[in-house]
């Protein structure tokens, strides 16, 4: 399997390198769909210039990346293109390895369940075979590397690629069962953009499951493990933040990075839901709606964790999707990360209902973004409502996509425990309805 | 959400759609066309009204007196133009200076990609002369432009005369709050392009021009004047700009309001408006006017010197003086008064014109159809594509699972090949003109056009043969997937086009949607191939040329029409190279390959 992966990596790197050399690179790096005020490379360069002049990079209102990123690029600024390509490669490889490992576990679990005769007899067609699972890791890597969204994001040198790499490494270390590394990468991801904090629940559930510790609030072993993980997570977060303080010599970055993410002062249009709403709103409602909007990302963690406590990896996928939909400055790079997981759930396709419609809508929206942007900004004949309408449609489509997968996943689990051909009490064929 | 989640209702809906697919499609198509034709019916349209308050209620009194003197200046200009054999730069500079303007010149030169036979030019060198009247009343942050072209021959001398007359008159008024720039541009749009690029410090088309020495504020609005006779019978308003962009409707309203006030006959598309909308002839007159506007907008070329302003967010229109055989004539003084009134109202603007519509069609100067009314016509046509897609949603996944890599290849190959053909159509004509001129007895322009037609025709033969060679036999599902991809592609393409340029999107949808809906490998080959060729983009253009002539009441014979067709193609390529019009690349790189996909499906083996 190494040869196809290597080939894939080569193709991906070639495409990116070619695009870096073309005139498109400048155009792409200006697109609001691809870069946000947080991740724009232009702003990183500005921050670097300020740093070189001995001024705090956060003194203006331009730079909002974390101190570690700016010190990383302090050394790597000449190799920026290679760094971003490398970040994509790392993400892809990490996802490849973690999905491979995850599939092995899924298969093992399925074997045990089969041996214990836990599946109803008519569910045999739902059982997954090693043959169909063989190419899934490769498909995951392909979905990430050759996704136009990822390519755009990488060519625009959006630092989103680096965040994705950190999250992918977190997924890998979690699935491999390495508690310390998982905590460290999670704290790095949190440090980068706060929102990955919600992945904490999924990671805990997975690690508990792996160590055969039951999720039982009355058991000491459960609390002991949670405390251990929390200690490692908070400890490494503390170290990273402290390191940033010592590198920079001031706490400037806290309001400038995290305040910026949470209070959303920059209303540059993007593919998210925040900008239009907050541009239109009366000032004295702002705090209230800020809380309402931000709580979206964190709120779904609780019900999803309860519902999916047996399936933490699916929970990770759901959380990543929720983050990329509801975060304050989303870019297409965030979407690419959770889309990379779609092949993992390819066995659900018989239960998906709207996937065709939704993918058509996503496709059409992606084409309409630049068109409506042109009409609004350059031609001056349309206005922000046109662009926001497409943003809204795009996000609705994403939500439908995710909830479709969620439904399909739950339905498959339901069939696995109750049989595929459900009968009503009177013997007629039953249908499952989501209400 | 019930529809999306309740499986029973979904099944019922899907079965309904599959069973009645063909009739629904036909009904949609008819409804789309009927809706479009209904747009010109007066009770369905809105009356134009002034939305901008700054231009609405304020009183303006027009007092421009010096029409005769302006015509005299025009004659003087004509004499100097003849003597100089082009733009009489020195005379213009002197005259403008004597009228109290700050005068500057700009030189520009441009080599066309191939000779323009319509306007007989290849190496273009020229000079723009412009004078700025500085605003006495306000900081000079905003400006208005009045331009007149310096045309070869005896055209538009009167326009320059009126422009200079107005400059002299405006200079003595104290109420100007915006700079007024009087521009005489040489070589019509090329000069205008050079001047605008110089004014905004951009260079999008690689033209050579000297930088502007004097600038005014940011330009709010511009009018371009074309006047070739001492008296006119009516004034015609031209709105269509580059890529089908239109100025804010308030500019048209302003023109219409002043024509009513002063009592000048005004037209749009050269058609007077009629009051008998309830009679058949009145309705067909309105349809003609609207269709002319649609045709002009769809062509994507600027139909007057104003067309390039729109790209810079400047609302602009061209006012054309027309002298026909009518009793009632309007003299230059009245035209001057009309322009004075319009500029004084524009002078009152507090912000850019944005209150009124940007997307509209005009069946007459006093009525308009806004985007909310005309989009459903396109929507009904696009709905057919969506209905055709909906017939087998599971196709894609099952196909990818069963046919695997060779299956994907057999769909990917036609996609790639047809796009390569599109790239060839886009690049070859200009690059191969020299070789073609060497080997065939044709001029450069003919070479370009004929190469384009040759590549286009060759594309019909090429793709379906090669794809069979590459991947062997296509499967039954193969063409279905290809059709699915092609229909989706067409839907997105037409949707985006219709948003930017409704007319172009609608005309393309009229011809391409039926093709997309009916074509399968099972239909009779020869007949379908004939129908497809008839409905292909090139033939659409040919029909449009004839229809346009017919609508203008200047029908042409087939041979003349064919010559016109050739010149339209060369003009389209030139417009792209000179001003960045997007129609040619759109058709060559996207629409034509998309059509080729359907052609491919027809010959799927």
TrEMBL record, chain A:
Q: Which residues form a coiled coil?
A: none
**Where found?**
Endoplasmic reticulum membrane
Its placement in the membrane is given as: Multi-pass membrane protein
- Origin, by domain of life? Eukaryota
List the pathway annotation. Glycolipid biosynthesis; glycosylphosphatidylinositol-anchor biosynthesis
Main subcellular location of this protein, as a coarse class: endoplasmic reticulum
Write down the InterPro entries for this protein, in alphabetical order: PIG-U (IPR009600)
Q: Which residues cross the membrane?
A: 68-99, 143-172, 184-208, 229-251, 257-278, 285-302, 314-342, 354-379, 385-407
| Signal sequence, renumbered to the chain | 1-17
One GO CC term, this protein: GPI-anchor transamidase complex
Keywords annotated in UniProt = Endoplasmic reticulum, GPI-anchor biosynthesis, Membrane, Signal, Transmembrane, Transmembrane helix
Which Pfam families does the UniProt entry name for this protein? PIG-U
Key word Magnesium present in the record? no
What is one GO biological process annotated to this record?
attachment of GPI anchor to protein
Q: Which family does it belong to?
A: Belongs to the PIGU family.
Instruction: Indicate what this protein is called per its UniProt record.
Output: Phosphatidylinositol glycan anchor biosynthesis, class U
Q: Which gene encodes it?
A: pigu
Automatic annotation (TrEMBL), chain B:
Q: Which UniProt keywords apply?
A: Disulfide bond, Endoplasmic reticulum, Glycoprotein, GPI-anchor biosynthesis, Membrane, Transmembrane, Transmembrane helix
Q: In which pathway does it act?
A: Glycolipid biosynthesis; glycosylphosphatidylinositol-anchor biosynthesis
Query: Where is this protein chiefly located?
Result: endoplasmic reticulum
UniProt topology in membrane: Multi-pass membrane protein
Give the transmembrane ranges: 20-41, 357-387, 407-426, 447-466, 486-519, 526-548, 582-604
| InterPro entries per record | Gaa1
Q: Where in the cell is it found?
A: Endoplasmic reticulum membrane
Q: Which GO terms describe its biological process?
A: attachment of GPI anchor to protein; GPI anchor biosynthetic process
- Quick one: a GO cellular component term? GPI-anchor transamidase complex
Write out the function statement from the record.
Component of the glycosylphosphatidylinositol-anchor (GPI-anchor) transamidase (GPI-T) complex that catalyzes the formation of the linkage between a proprotein and a GPI-anchor and participates in GPI anchored protein biosynthesis. Binds GPI-anchor.
Share what the entry says about its subunit structure, partners included: Heteropentamer. Part of the GPI-anchor transamidase complex, consisting of PIGK, PIGT, PIGS, PIGU and GAA1. Interacts with PIGK.
Protein name from the UniProt record = GPI-anchor transamidase component GPAA1
Which gene produces this protein? gpaa1
């Amino acid at each position: 399997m190494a040869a196809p992966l290597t080939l894939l990596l080569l193709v991906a790197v070639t495409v990116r390198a070619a695009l870096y050399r073309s005139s498109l690179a400048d155009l792409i790096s200006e697109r609001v769909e691809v870069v946000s005020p947080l991740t724009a490379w232009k702003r990183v360069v500005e921050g670097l210039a300020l740093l070189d002049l001995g001024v705090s990079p956060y003194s203006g209102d331009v730079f909002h990346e974390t101190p570690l990123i700016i010190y990383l690029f302090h050394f790597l600024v000449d190799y920026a293109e290679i760094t971003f390509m490398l970040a994509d490669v790392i993400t892809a490889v990490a996802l490849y390895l973690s999905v491979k490992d995850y599939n092995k576990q899924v298969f093992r679990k399925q074997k045990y369940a089969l041996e214990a005769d836990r599946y109803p007899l008519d569910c045999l067609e739902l059982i997954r075979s090693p043959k169909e699972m063989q190419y899934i890791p490769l498909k995951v890597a392909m979905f990430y590397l050759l996704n136009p969204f990822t390519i755009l994001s990488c060519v625009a040198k959006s630092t989103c690629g680096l965040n994705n790499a950190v999250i992918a490494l977190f997924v890998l270390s979690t699935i491999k069962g390495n508690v310390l590394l998982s905590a460290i990468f999670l704290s790095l991801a949190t440090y980068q953009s706060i929102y990955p904090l919600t992945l904490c629940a999924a990671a805990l559930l997975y690690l508990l499951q792996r160590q055969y510790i039951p999720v039982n609030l009355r058991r000491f072993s459960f609390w002991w493990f949670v405390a251990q993980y929390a200690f490692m997570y908070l400890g490494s977060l503390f170290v990273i933040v402290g390191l940033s303080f010592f590198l920079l010599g001031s706490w400037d970055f806290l309001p400038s990075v995290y305040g910026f993410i949470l209070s959303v002062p920059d209303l540059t249009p993007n593919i998210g839901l925040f900008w239009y709403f907050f541009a239109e709103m009366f000032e004295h409602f702002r705090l209230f709606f800020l809380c309402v909007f931000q709580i979206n990302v964190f709120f779904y963690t609780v019900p999803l964790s309860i519902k999916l406590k047996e399936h933490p990896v699916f929970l990770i996928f759901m959380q990543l999707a929720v983050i990329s939909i509801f975060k304050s400055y989303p870019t297409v790079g965030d979407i690419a990360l959770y889309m990379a997981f779609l092949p993992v759930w390819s066995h659900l396709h018989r239960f998906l209902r709207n996937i065709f419609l939704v993918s058509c809508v996503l496709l059409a929206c992606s084409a309409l973004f630049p068109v409506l942007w042109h009409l609004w900004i350059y031609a001056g004949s349309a206005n922000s409502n046109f662009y926001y309408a497409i943003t809204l449609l795009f996000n609705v489509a994403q939500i439908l996509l995710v909830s479709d997968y969620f439904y399909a996943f739950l339905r498959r689990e339901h069939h696995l425990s109750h049989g595929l051909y459900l009968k009503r009490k009177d013997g007629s064929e039953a249908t499952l309805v989501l209400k | 959400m019930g529809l999306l989640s309740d499986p029973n209702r979904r099944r019922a809906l899907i079965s309904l759609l599959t069973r009645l697919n063909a009739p629904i499609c036909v009904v949609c198509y008819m409804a789309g066309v009927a809706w479009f034709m209904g747009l010109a019916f007066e009770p369905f349209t809105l009356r134009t009204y002034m939305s901008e308050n700054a231009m609405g209620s304020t009183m303006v009194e027009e007092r421009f007196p010096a029409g005769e003197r302006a015509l005299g200046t025009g004659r003087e200009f004509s004499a100097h133009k003849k003597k100089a054999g082009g733009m009489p730069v020195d005379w213009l500079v002197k005259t403008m200076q004597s009228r109290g303007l700050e005068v500057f010149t700009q030189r520009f030169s441009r080599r066309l990609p191939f000779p323009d036979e319509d306007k007989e030019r290849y190496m273009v060198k020229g000079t723009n002369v412009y004078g700025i009247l500085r605003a006495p009343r306000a900081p000079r942050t905003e400006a208005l432009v009045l331009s007149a072209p310096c045309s070869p021959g005896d055209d538009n001398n009167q326009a320059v005369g009126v422009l200079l007359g107005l400059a002299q008159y405006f200079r003595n008024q104290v109420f100007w709050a915006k700079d007024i720039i009087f521009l005489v541009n040489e070589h019509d749009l090329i000069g205008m392009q050079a001047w605008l690029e110089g004014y905004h410090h951009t260079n999008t088309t690689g033209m050579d021009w000297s930088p502007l020495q004097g600038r005014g504020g940011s330009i709010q609005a511009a009018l371009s004047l074309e006047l070739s006779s001492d008296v006119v019978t009516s004034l015609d308003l031209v709105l269509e700009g580059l890529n089908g962009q239109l100025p804010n409707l308030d500019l048209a309203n302003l023109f219409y309001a002043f024509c009513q006030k002063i009592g000048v006959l005004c037209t749009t598309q050269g058609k007077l408006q009629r009051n008998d909308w309830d009679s058949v002839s009145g309705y067909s007159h309105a349809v003609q006017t609207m269709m002319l506007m649609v045709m002009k907008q769809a062509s994507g070329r600027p139909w007057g010197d104003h067309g390039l302003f729109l790209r810079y967010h400047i609302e602009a229109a061209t006012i054309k003086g027309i002298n026909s055989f009518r009793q009632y004539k309007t003299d230059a003084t009245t035209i001057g008064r009309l322009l004075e009134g319009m500029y004084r109202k524009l002078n009152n603007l507090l912000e850019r014109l944005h209150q009124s519509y940007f997307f509209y069609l005009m069946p007459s100067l006093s009525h308009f159809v806004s985007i909310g009314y005309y989009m459903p016509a396109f929507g009904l046509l696009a709905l057919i594509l969506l209905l055709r897609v909906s017939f087998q949603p599971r196709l894609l996944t099952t196909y990818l699972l069963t046919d695997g890599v060779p299956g994907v290849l057999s769909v990917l190959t036609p996609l790639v090949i047809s796009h390569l053909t599109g790239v060839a159509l886009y690049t070859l004509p200009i690059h191969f003109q020299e070789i073609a001129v060497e080997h065939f007895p044709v001029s450069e322009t003919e070479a370009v056009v004929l190469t384009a037609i040759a590549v286009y025709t060759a594309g019909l033969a090429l793709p379906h043969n090669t794809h069979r060679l590459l991947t062997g036999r296509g499967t039954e599902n193969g063409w279905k997937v290809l059709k699915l991809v092609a229909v989706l592609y067409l839907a997105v393409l037409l949707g985006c086009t219709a948003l930017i340029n409704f007319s172009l999107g609608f005309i393309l949808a009229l011809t391409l949607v039926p093709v997309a809906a009916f074509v399968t490998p099972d239909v009779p080959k020869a007949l379908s191939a004939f129908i497809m060729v008839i409905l292909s983009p090139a033939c659409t253009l040919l029909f449009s040329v004839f229809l346009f002539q017919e609508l203008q009441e200047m029908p042409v014979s087939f041979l003349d029409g064919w010559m016109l067709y050739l010149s339209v193609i060369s003009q389209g390529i030139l417009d792209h190279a000179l001003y960045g019009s997007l129609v040619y690349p759109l058709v060559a790189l996207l629409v034509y390959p998309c059509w080729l996909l359907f052609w491919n499906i027809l010959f799927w083996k």
